[in-house]
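dumping this here before i forget
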Amino acid sequence: MVLQGLKRVGTMKDWRIMELLAVLILGFLLISGCANTGSTSTATAATPTLAQKNVLFSDDLGSWRSEWEPVYDSPDGKTFYSGGSLHIRDNKPPSGAMYHTLNKNFNDFILDVDTKLVEGTIDNWAGLEIRCQDEGSYYALEISSDGYYEISKFENSNKVKLAKPTNSSYINTGVGATNHIHIEANKNTMGLSVNGHHLSTVTDNTFTEGAVALMANCVKESDFTEVAFSNLVITQI
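structure:
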């Protein structure tokens, strides 16, 4: 009887040990599960990488490339490459702007380019002709070296001002001044920004696609203006 009693006592101790082990194992599993859950949450919270926009065309404008029209030299003005930039010089107002055309068509796009007044009058215009149909039909988005901007439509050489000449302190002025031009053409809207500051957005339905041209125009009679362009990038909007 004593042996049986001892045996019964021993069995109860074994069960208690097993129960204790079960509790310890369950606690370990719960702790491991919480740790794993925290790890998964951290991975999910990682910041996603933003997709880069598609570059349609880029050129540092350091030298001539076959996508552009040939450079030229005339009494009215000339285009040439020098010092890692494309130079456009307009000699003889009011004969019209000098321009350099990229032989590619675009519809909706974002365009960035840097400009610098090398020498000549600050009474000028420099910028872009976009959605060009021919020499007389296009949109012009321009800034001047005396601090103005303008957006116009030329249709069969007839000018319509979509954004009249307006002064802006965001435009750097004078000889040697550089400016970064940013243009967004999206369906029937066109926006112009300079040096990271939005200047104007206009709406017009006339031209939906066409070529792009860099341009410079001397406004002051019996004078000239020479503007250098660099770092042209056109991306998908």
